[in-house]
Design a protein that fits this description.
Layout: H1 3-9, E1 15-30, E2 36-43, E3 48-54, H2 60-63, E4 71-81, E5 85-95, H3 98-106, H4 109-127, H5 132-151, H6 165-183, H7 189-198, H8 203-206, H9 220-241, H10 254-267, H11 283-307, E6 310-312, E7 315-316, E8 332-334, E9 343-345
Antiparallel strand pairs: 1-2, 1-4, 2-3, 4-5, 6-7, 8-9
């Protein structure tokens, strides 16, 4: 089971499970009683978990030889431990075998299928751009950065903060943007879809784990520039590589297309205090900002439903970025002619 799955499973009662994860940090510390203990920080594609290994545990022997980025199995009874959160009792720690390590980074069959499906939808959207300049730019980006794009996270925390999260976030935003263009046909569809693809492209450096890893380590380029500035450089660098001679006479002018795309990247956070150096000044920039914000917020709500602390029936503990304690939403009315008849379906059970 993944960390996220275990976190959801133990809401009602403890659960016995085996977890495969990567060591993010294994640190020897000293307790208030003067006895040493190990603090073991683990991470997989879904979440992170901290376990404490006391000096009288048989797991100490394994901890003493662990290094960052090693991969381990934790098998035992998982439970919620008050303010400490997810914890384990009577658990055993061992290193993963080579085939188990490979499977950990590849993900389960369902996880691989989900990423493949989302990445394929991104490729289809890029190939479907009618403007040859934006289509060529998107193709070049996926050709040169596809591997990093598939494993990058969309953030360090809050939403899609996991390996492969950026592809999921981008694919969902593309679907939302395409639907919005049907409602608002005056929007430049090609520009908006390209803006979705490139708005977070700087995160291929800012929040991208290594090929065999889940932890998002600080990157000099990401730290010194941030993903918005990197995104502008990526677009300009790729644009210089493209055959611009073939675009003479196209309308709107090619440099205007590039400039408007860069504006989408620069303004997509929507406010100066949130890191955008300029505010959204075009219909496509306004739409991109709200699509991005909507997908991030709905993801945070879904995370609260799946693994958040339920402080009362249907009421969850406060999610800081949302500034509220989410409540479980009203079920969706199902009026299909099913054997069960008409019924309400909880919203988090709807595919």
């Amino acid at each position: 089971m993944t960390i996220a799955a275990i976190r959801g499973a133990v809401k009602e009662k403890p659960a016995f499970a085996e977890l495969h994860a990567q060591v993010e940090q294994c640190t020897k510390k000293e307790g208030s009683n003067g006895k040493p203990f190990w603090e073991l920080r683990l991470r997989d594609a879904s979440d992170a978990l901290t376990l404490r290994v006391w000096s009288d545990s048989a797991n100490v022997r394994v901890c003493e030889s662990l290094e960052d980025a090693d991969c381990v199995s934790v098998e035992g009874e998982f439970h919620l431990n008050g303010s400490f959160g997810l914890d384990a009792r009577r658990w055993e720690l061992r290193r993963l075998m080579p085939d188990e390590r490979t499977a950990l980074f590849e993900g389960s069959e369902a996880e691989r299928a989900a990423v493949d499906e989302d990445y394929a939808s991104v490729e289809r959207a890029a190939a479907g751009l009618r403007d040859p300049r934006l289509r060529a730019l998107a193709a070049r980006f996926l050709e040169t950065g596809g591997a990093r794009f598939r494993r990058a996270a969309a953030a360090r925390m809050n939403h899609h903060a996991r390996r492969g999260g950026l592809v999921q976030h981008t694919a969902q935003m593309l679907r939302a943007a395409a639907a919005l263009c049907d409602v608002y046909p005056a929007l430049n569809r090609d520009l908006l879809l390209a803006g979705v693809l490139f708005h977070d492209c700087g995160k291929l450096w800012e929040t991208c784990p290594p090929e065999e890893g889940f932890a998002i380590r600080p990157d000099p380029r990401g730290e010194l520039m941030g993903h918005i500035s990197i995104g502008v450089e990526v677009v300009n660098a790729l644009w210089r590589e493209l055959p611009k001679a073939d675009w003479e006479g196209l309308a709107p002018a090619s440099d205007d297309v590039r400039l408007h795309l860069i504006h989408l990247i620069l303004s997509h956070h929507g406010a100066l205090e949130f890191g955008s150096p300029v505010l959204p000044k075009t219909p496509e920039a306004i739409a991109l900002h709200y699509i991005d914000n909507l997908d991030a917020r709905l993801e945070m709500i879904a995370q609260a439903y799946a693994g958040g602390k339920e402080i009362a029936p249907g009421i969850f503990d406060r999610v800081r970025p949302l500034e509220v304690g989410p409540m479980r939403s009203l079920g969706i009315f199902d009026d299909s002619d099913s054997p069960q008849g008409k019924k309400f379906v909880p919203s988090d059970e709807v595919a």
